[in-house]
Amino acid sequence: MREVLDVKAHVEDVRIWGDFRMPPSEDGRRDGCDGGSDRGERLPIPSARLGLWIFLGTVTMLFAGFTSAYLVRQAGSDWQPIPRPPILWVNTGVLLLSSFLLEIGRRRASPRRWGAGATFLGVLFLLGQLLVWRALRAQGVYLPTNPHSSFFYILTGVHGAHVVGGIIALLSGLVLAGRDVSEERLSHRLSLCATYWHFVGGVWLYLLCVLFLF
Fold first, then answer.
1. Where are the domains of the chain?
2. Is the distance from CB of 203 to CB of 59 less than 8 angstroms?
3. Phi, psi of 31 (to 5 degrees)
4. 152 contacts 82 by C-beta, under 8 angstroms
5. For 19-57, how does the pLDDT look when each residue is reduced to its tens digit (9 = 90+)?
6. Global pTM?
7. Tell me: the pLDDT tens digits for 153-189?
8. Which of 36, 75, 99, 100 is deepest in the core (most CB within 10 A)?
9. Largest Cα–Cα distance in the chain?
10. What are the helix and strand counts (H, E) for the chain?
């Protein structure tokens, strides 16, 4: 009988200690009894946006690693700068213009027309990058020609892959715009696409500085 009473007393102590550790809910009840079922249901940042920022952080670390390797390799005696095809600057303007169009669509809540324009310019940017590579090959500059050319092809190729991902996201947003969906959902999708697309444009400007100004 004494052992049963000791167990009950121990359970009561644990319950009381738990009540002191848990803050009361709005209705005065302690979490863990009746008032804690709603905890964690709402995050301060939507899960989709949080996932996007985590992914962008990962991509940032990727290009930061490339930059470190680039700066170290640049000190080698076999480093030879490669020429800059003029179409490279045209491509830059095209990508920045596509980002501008997408931002207009996001602010005016009219994603179909502006989003289509941004998507078209994104595809045009990729085609322009192929022309840049073709122009370099015509001058005898290939991937293994020298370290600078190797980094140029690799960095622009990795960036181009992320542009492809952005175009796929934009196309999915355009498909969603053609369906009967809520304006809130469509606006949220466009906002995510715009954030990613602006990031891609910023990375491209950063790569130009690294490849031709440092």
1. 47-212
2. yes
3. -65, 140
4. yes
5. 434 444 444 444 444 444 444 445 456 788 899 999 999
6. 0.77
7. 999 999 999 999 999 999 988 887 767 666 677 778 8
8. 99
9. 95
10. 6, 0
